[in-house]
Design a protein that fits this description.
Layout (H helix, E strand, L loop, with lengths): L2 H23 L5 H30 L12 H4 L5
Helix pairs in contact: 1-2
């Protein structure tokens, strides 16, 4: 994925997060469902942000940003940049 694709995916996931919160508020889903889906979204968002940071760092240091790879959630969750 290039930078624009990553940013578009992040935007979509943020919109999905808002829809989940709205669905909970309107009673369409229960809290457990919302929390489960939010955890999945958060993991995917962490991976996207990490991939974006990798690509930007590679570009900044004259490396090929296309060599950046999606890392597993266990590696990127809780990143403190």
């Amino acid at each position: 994925m290039d930078q624009e694709q990553i940013l578009a995916r992040i935007t979509t996931m943020v919109d999905d997060e808002r829809r989940l919160r709205d669905a909970l508020a309107s009673g369409q889903i229960d809290s457990a469902t919302e929390q489960e889906q939010l955890r999945e979204l958060e993991r995917a968002l962490d991976q996207c942000w990490d991939l974006l940071r990798q690509r930007r760092a590679k570009s900044e240091f004259g490396e090929n940003p296309d060599e950046a790879r999606v890392r597993p959630p266990s590696q990127v969750e809780g990143y403190q940049g």
